[in-house]
Amino acid sequence: MPTIEVAAHSGACFGVQRALDIALKASKEASQPVHTLGSLIHNPIVVADLRERGVCAAETPAEAGSGTLIIRAHGVTPQVIDDARACGLHVIDATCPYVKRVHHAAERLAAVGLQVLVVGEEGHPEVQGIMGHAGAGALVVSDGCDIAALPLAKRVGVVVQTTQTIARLREVVAELLGLVDELTVVNTICEATSERQSSAADLAARADAMVVIGGKESGNTRRLAEICSSSCPNTHHIEDAHEIDPAWFTACELIGVTAGASTPADHIERCCARIREVVR
Prior knowledge:
Elements: E1 3-6, H1 14-29, E2 34-37, H2 44-52, E3 55-58, H3 61-64, E4 68-71, H4 78-86, E5 90-93, H5 97-111, E6 115-119, H6 125-131, E7 139-141, E8 155-160, H7 166-176, E9 182-185, H8 191-204, E10 209-213, H9 219-231, E11 235-238, E12 254-259, H10 265-279
Parallel strand pairs: 1-12, 2-3, 2-4, 4-5, 6-7, 6-8, 8-9, 10-11, 10-12
Helix pairs in contact: 5-6, 8-9
């Protein structure tokens, strides 16, 4: 029977667990409807569980109507919170504190006249929220290849989506160095993200197969899958145990398991149990 090893750092991070705890507490205490603004986290299983507990997702403050509105872990723009309060909603901010750190860094850079460049995924909820704090002229860049086409100012400040890789940040900074007169970089990558990426890379380098658990819409989980795939081609990104295929583990001696920051511990254990079942 092959060995199953879970990465040293994997699964739900502090910010995600905090948001879940806030939502569950609100569901127990509120006498009026409780909504999250969009999905609380990028994990459809968790979102479905919250719905069963009476915490439903609303795409806009107006859609929530009344009661309590929980701001998701990814954060939002200041205007969205203002709109929610204008609708008469009781707002509970569950934005991850590490995402808040990016907001504050972007505000500081913009306040001293720097054009803010956000290294991240265009359209991602976290990046959309950061842009709301980044001032006029702020831009999003996904990698170094995009830099040459951007309308850059001479003075630029850089912040990073919390789930990006340090390699991506270095790539962007290297391209910027020859194009601007002044460059200030604030490394806002979350330590938990870095730890998960490093642990996943270490395990993938030794494993015959890797299973990466987490929402398909989760940026940090997708990046874990990319990191694992680079050294272990037999890598599979799943959301739940029922997706596991026994054929993945043929002739494997070491099966590695990791999980994104939006994946609770019981999801990891459920998947490990399924792997043990199919490799017997």
